[in-house]
Design a protein that fits this description.
six-stranded antiparallel beta sheet; 6 strands; Alpha-Beta Plaits; alpha+beta; PspAB-like
């Protein structure tokens, strides 16, 4: 960033830090103790699929690497690669591997977000979403489309703000309606 950018109030975008995903297992312990939400054993990587054979081969390699996966498309044209693993540390490792594979193959700009799902004893769902392009996390608590549980999201933000780099701009907490696991 040059002095001209600073003068105009522009700043560089935060660089993604995929290793931040490894903070999720300890955050899951804190979340469970404070709110009763426990890992549901599912997580997903959301990306814009590229055309061509190279991307198709990479997607097949990721699916082979992660074992049992499910690929789906959402209404916005994004591809969701979902994985199940009852161990949250193993789940995060799988999700990190998928993100890293896409990034190292030059498809980093195609990555949108990664999420890990949680549920409480009443079977309410919650996702902790990692925004790839901003390098931050935020909670998403669906309460039946198109409603979300804003109070729960703010509560979770307060619980996890010392564990994870929480996205400060609430306008960037976009809803992930129809995401696998939710």
């Amino acid at each position: 960033m040059g002095w001209f950018d600073a003068l105009l109030g522009r700043s560089k975008a935060a660089k993604p830090d995929l290793d931040a995903l490894f903070a999720l297992p300890s955050a899951a312990v804190t979340l469970r103790a404070a709110t009763g939400f426990a890992p549901a054993g599912t997580g997903s990587v959301c990306f814009r699929a590229a055309e061509g054979g190279a991307f198709a081969r990479l997607q097949q390699e990721i699916e082979a690497l992660m074992g049992e996966t499910r690929v789906s498309q959402d209404a916005y044209g994004y591809t969701w690669l979902s994985v199940r693993n009852p161990d949250v540390a193993g789940l995060v490792t799988d999700l990190h591997a998928a993100n890293s594979s896409l990034e190292s193959a030059g498809f980093g700009p195609s990555l949108l977000c990664t999420l890990v799902t949680f549920a409480d004893s009443a079977q309410r769902k919650l996702a902790i979403v990692y925004l790839y392009k901003r390098g931050t996390f935020y909670p998403f608590a669906p309460a039946g489309e198109p409603r979300r549980d804003n109070a729960l999201e703010l509560q979770v933000r307060g619980v996890l703000d010392q564990e994870l780099k929480i996205e400060p701009d609430l306008a960037s907490w976009f809803p992930v309606w129809g995401a696998p696991g939710l």
